[in-house]
């Protein structure tokens, strides 16, 4: 009995170990990581650019959020006592000189240049890390202004730093192919495989699946006893998003009565169901295209209802991590043929 | 499998798997990282009341905070989008310039910029959400800091003298309002029906001194302004 148990656990460890190694360390096609580099790079560029017109407003010398006030607002340190804040949010914008207009603009412009370089695939190992530092600097400077978009963006950008994002779909390879004029499109020239690319993609996949799970579970975290109202359980939640007149992009309040109110109920429940099902079924390659297609519809509809366009677009970008590499090779071949 | 291996030439690290030493080290780092990320994500579910928080997760989150905060894994907890509580409602910050009475809607200036749907727009709304949250929750310290920031910006950066700053909650319409409510209730932007003031503070600006705040608890309660004080 004991030896059988020992054998069982020994066999279990072997199977788990083999599966672990297969999952994390199998080589993966780098074209997907190149696509993600471009998409996440563009999202990062948008994020930093969106601060441009309000840079002084938020972070300037007499801005809305002084650097020394932020930890006090967050309750993370007592600046009055002179104690070091207990939070660990690194930001280039936290230093006293960074609030001065010249330094602020310098950091801003350098951040944009670095992110542009990363997006183009120039020195991506270094510019990737620098881009992450730049994006985190803006997020950590004023965490209370960050929303779910920043959470997904920093996650994706952080993991991309681990992979060979400069292996393909770069400006250098495109220029080289134009110079040689050999007719090969840079996108399809010498695709390669890499275990670090797989590691990067797997981390993004796991983290994204966890996001979906948390989104679904937190929606169901309502109570009926006068705490948080269980609007997602009751199928009412979409109405409360539709009714937020200062956030929504389109007015769907016509859905207040049947049959539209029934559609609203179903829409609410389907969002929760999808977010709970996604992290489980996305790993099945037969169901994956269906889930990704539904995700497109869901996130576009939520963008219109909530106004959180950047968050919904970022979720669509993150979902690209589940698109197989063959899909991108075919798109590149079509582009080459044209 | 999700990842297809290309048949073309391999990169320097190649289509080969890493050595067992590297794989072991990376696996160890993976386990630690996934644990940290998992704790950070789990702790950012819909906020629980202080009394029924998960003590284990809270303690773990506190220990792992240097890592999770650095990489922004601790989210703002907005993944649930709405529970239809007051905290999920739209809020707005408005200020009353000097010389205005404040009895008319037009007297107040809305502190907001950007096109609807953009992050620029939502940043102002999140600031308003915070001021409303702490202001209505009687957290005078934090709400004062936020209001002082608004006052500093308007007075010192925009060079506009300001009397008051307020945060208002924009209540959403209920289905019954749209279905058959009064004409006032059918207008979602009707201030009398849907805008509730949750915080107001008087801005006190003295030359050479930081902006200070006097919270207005009820009508008529304002701080005496020093003679000669000007922004």
Question: Overview of this structure, please?
Answer:
The complex is a heterodimer of chains A (338) and B (231). Chain A is 63% helix and 1% strand. Chain A has helices spanning 2-25, 31-49, 55-59, 69-73, 101-120, 124-141, 148-160, 171-180, 195-219, 231-234, 237-242, 260-281, 288-306, 309-319, 325-337; strands spanning 28-29, 193-194. In chain A, 45% of the residues are buried. Chain A has 338 residues and is mostly helical. Chain A has a two-stranded antiparallel ribbon. In chain B, strands 2-1-3-4-5 form a five-stranded antiparallel β-sheet. Chain B is α+β, with helices and mostly antiparallel strands. Helix content of chain B is 38%, strand content 14%. In chain B, helix 4 crosses helix 5. Chain B has eight helices and five strands; from the N terminus they run αααββααβαααββ. The radius of gyration of chain B is 25 Å and the shape is extended. Mean pLDDT of chain B is 82; it is low at 1-14, 48-52 and 219-231. At the A-B interface, helix 1, strand 1, helix 2, helix 3 and helix 4 of A face helix 1, helix 3, helix 4, helix 5 and helix 6 of B.
